[in-house]
Amino acid sequence: MSDVRYVAIGDSFSEGVGDELPDASGAPTAVRGWADLVAQGWADALGRPIEYANLAIRGKLAWPIVREQLEPALALKPTHLSFNGGGNDLLRPRTTIEHIADAFSHVLRRCDEEGVQLLLLSGADPTRGLPLGGLVRRRGDALSAAVEARLRDRDDVIRALNWPDRELATGPFWSQDRLHMNTRGHHRVAARVLTALGFEPDPSWWRLPEDELEAQLRGMAYYRTHVGPWLRRRLTRPSSGDGRAAKFASWQTVPPADAGIARAGEGLDTA
Questions:
Q1: Are the C-beta atoms of 186 and 16 separated by less than 8 Å?
Q2: pTM of the predicted model, to two decimals?
Q3: CATH of domain 5-216
């Protein structure tokens, strides 16, 4: 087994929603996302295979992520675990910030107990394009501050903080639903994670060319296509992740594809 065993837990952000992979006809068939990109970049940087699993499922609140994904992830005996959650909670005003932050503290405690390196992410800020975005942004700012306060003395926790990234918050990094990052957004987050791990990602990942075909829906077309279905789910209580299985519930071996990513401060060994 590889000396790097990386597992991701979380919601749609970590599952990769918004970075859809097309089939031969161009229709989307699966999602990729920043965690898949990180796994490949990690293997490329090391020049040897790593093991990768991804238990994240879209639509999950912070505590259901912890209850349903954390222990199965730790049972895989990873060396590294990434966690992000709370984005769906922020859209529910009755959920308190401290309740969400408690989930982060629990994940950190369990990683400490199991000797697993925690990679902590904050989600990207979607609020510029959302109805009542200012309210959600204030709650997101409060959550970021609460989690950071709990980790103030934990320099050993690897951080990849995306919420403060003002460029990532702009429209060209987001899908039509304005809630999930598109391919550009996922690559930018992957670049930040790889940098936090001590690697130098492909510089283009920070700002891929814009997809001219991915025009943003506006006005009533946006509300009919995305806001209406989201409100119906809130009223009837099904989650977009209900009935979905984890993308990679067991280890997937990720071999290096090339030597395109180097450890920061090191040159590639071309001998």
A1: yes
A2: 0.86
A3: 3.40.50.1110
